[in-house]
Amino acid sequence: MKVIFLDIDGVLVTRNSIKYQHLNHPNEPDTLFSQKAVKNLNKLIRLTNAKIVISSTWRLFHSLADLKKIFKKQGIKGDIISTTSVERATVEEDIPRGKKITDWLEQHPEVEQYVVIDDDVKADCIQFHPFNCVETSYKRGFAPEEGFNEALAILLEK
Q1: Torsion from C-alpha of 44, 12, 5, 30, nearest 10 degrees
Q2: What does the radius of gyration of the chain's CA atoms come to, in whole angstroms?
Q3: pLDDT digit string (tens) for 60-94?
Q4: Domain residue limits at 24
Q5: What is the pTM of this model?
Q6: Through-space distance between the first and last CA atoms of the chain, rounded to whole angstroms
Q7: Main-chain dihedrals φ then ψ at residue 7, nearest 5 degrees
Q8: How do residues 105-145 score in pLDDT, each as one tens digit?
Q9: CATH number of the domain that residue 24 is part of
Q10: How many structural domains is the chain composed of?
């Protein structure tokens, strides 16, 4: 099994998507994801058959069922199979995200390959997963092709 550990803010929700929503859909109650980031994520899932594990702090405020509904409404076609641990979690994330990913992987030996897509890999991810991180920017998220190509190469690695 291939897995995408996915952050949301700075990956799917970007400065550009917030600006677009404010200008074009000011009365939309739900945060709109970047359509280009969604397109790239769907393409990555389609080409690799990867499953999604939410590593974002959104997991602290939304149940797995709610996250699945949000992703479906936003047009994401992949399967969310889990989140990283929420036990002892706080908004400040006392345990580094990279460590939570390591813990999740230790409990799932069926994972053959994985990628971490996050806008802050230097802070708490790259020290644990130096060859599996794709860093995005809060401005554009997972929209640029180079981020998509990097994630694809990681997931297709043997």
Answers
A1: -120
A2: 15
A3: 999 999 999 999 999 999 999 999 987 655 555 56
A4: 2-156
A5: 0.91
A6: 12
A7: -85, 160
A8: 999 999 999 999 999 877 667 788 989 999 999 999 999 99
A9: 3.40.50
A10: 1
DSSP state of 32: P
Buried b (16+ CB within 10 A) or exposed e, 29-41: eeebbbebbbebb
55, 84 contact by CB (below 8 A): yes
Query: Tokens for 100?
Result: 């939570």
SS3 111: coil
**CA proximity to 136, closest of 5, 1, 3, 2:** 5
How many CB atoms lie under 10 A from the CB of residue 95? 15
Task: Answer yes or no: are the C-beta atoms of 78 and 31 closer than 8 Å.
Answer: no
Q: At what angle do helices 35-48 and 145-156 cross, to 10 degrees?
A: 20
Distances, alpha carbon 39 to alpha carbons 18, 76, 123, 125, in Å: 17, 8, 27, 24
Contacts of 80 (CB under 8 A, 6+ apart): 51, 52, 53, 54, 64, 67, 68, 71
Please give the single-letter amino acid code of residue 143.
A
Whether the Cβ atoms of residue 155 and residue 43 lie closer than 8 Å to each other: no
